Amino acid sequence: MLIVPLIAESLRRMKRDQYVVFACTGTNRFVQFAVGGPGRVRGEVVSDHFLDDDEQLTAAERKAIAGLGFTAPTHADDAPPARQVKGGSPNWYRDFHGPGAAQLAAVAAAEILAFAFKHEPADVRYHAFAQDGEELVLPVAGIQPEAEWLSPGFRPDDHDDLRQMVVETLEGTAIGTTRAAEGVDLVVEVGDRAVYVTAHDEPMSVLLYSVVGTADEGEETLATINDLNRSRNGCRAILYDGHLVVDRVLPGDPFVPRQLVEAVIEIIAWANTIATQGAEATPETAPDPALN
User: Fold this and answer.
1) End-to-end alpha-carbon separation of the chain, Å?
2) Among the listed ranges 53-67, 134-148, 164-178, 244-258, which one has the minimum average pLDDT value?
3) 244: which DSSP letter?
4) Phi, psi at residue 49, to the nearest 5°?
5) Which residues contact 200 (CB under 8 A, 6 or more apart)?
């Protein structure tokens, strides 16, 4: 699930006493996390205390939540202090500890949202904030913040508008580090992988690509690429000037802000997956950025 690495990265970047709530649209169901510092995450899943009668958790949902290591609620939300369990919660809860806390919490969130609550990322909204009320923007591909920070109705009229949309969208997220580069509008770096992004005006579109590494043009390599392309939607693998490249083209329409971050993560994930399939990794080497 693509949202797992993004939720994990979000939790790793969050600081002590910062919070994020993933809410299922049209319902009162949610999964929420509180960060207690490096390697410390408290996760909670909504309990029946906060749900209307027609939204109460089913036996199967409770079993799924418990199966992910969450403890059943220990007391009601309005319980007097004497009846509240120290360290407990009126929600289902689990404490994640150690270097892998963010990753484990992200897997749990994705499992609950997708399989227990049957909600796709597009049907989920997040609200992230600090203890002092400061709003946070997180790099969660496919999940939009409750307050849209970029208007989905903004329609690029020309190449300059489209380029502005691309740059402001990617620079406004915490997906990775961004930098300028000759021949492209922006480079997004996540770990040791770089994604080159550029806007085109004929036709209005956005090209994103990452160089997996060098590769020969032998029959085995070509057969591998063909197999990959048959199994993948959106992205494609190509040979270009002795390099194995993963790319994706987005139409230059108002949906670009919603698709850019997801496209970057998908390209990186796919490039990392196929890096061992006939390519010698040289991510610092880029062919002509005018790929199209």
Assistant:
1) 28
2) 134-148
3) E
4) -60, -30
5) 159, 206, 207, 252, 292
Q: Are 159 and 166 in contact (CB under 8 A)?
A: no
pLDDT reading at 30 higher than 60: yes
HSE (side-chain half, CA atoms, 13 Å) at 189: 9
What is the maximum span of the chain, computed from C-alpha positions, in angstroms? 73
Look up residue 152 and give its two tokens: 């989905």
Query: Please, what sign has the CA dihedral across residues 146, 149, 150, 153?
Result: positive
N residues, the chain: 292
- Does the model's pTM come out above 0.85? no
Q: Are 288 and 182 in contact (CB under 8 A)?
A: no
Q: CB neighbours (10 Å) of residue 46? A: 25
d(CA 261, CA 158): 21
Q: Look over the chain and give the mean of its residue pLDDT values, rounded to a whole number.
A: 80
Task: Report which of 25, 11, 247, 219 is spatially closest to residue 128, judged by C-alpha positions.
Answer: 11
Q: Give the residue with greater pLDDT, 195 vs 214.
A: 195
CA distance 46 to 44: 7
Query: Which two tokens mark 49?
Result: 């205390």
What residues form DSSP beta bridges with 208?
197, 248
Closest CA to 264 of 256, 275, 253, 254: 256
- Can you name the residues that pair with 45 across neighbouring β-strands? 31, 92
* Model pLDDT, residue 143: 65
Spatial CB neighbours of 112, under 8 Å, sequence gap ≥ 6: 31, 45, 64, 65, 68
Q: Which two tokens stand for residue 101?
A: 């806390």
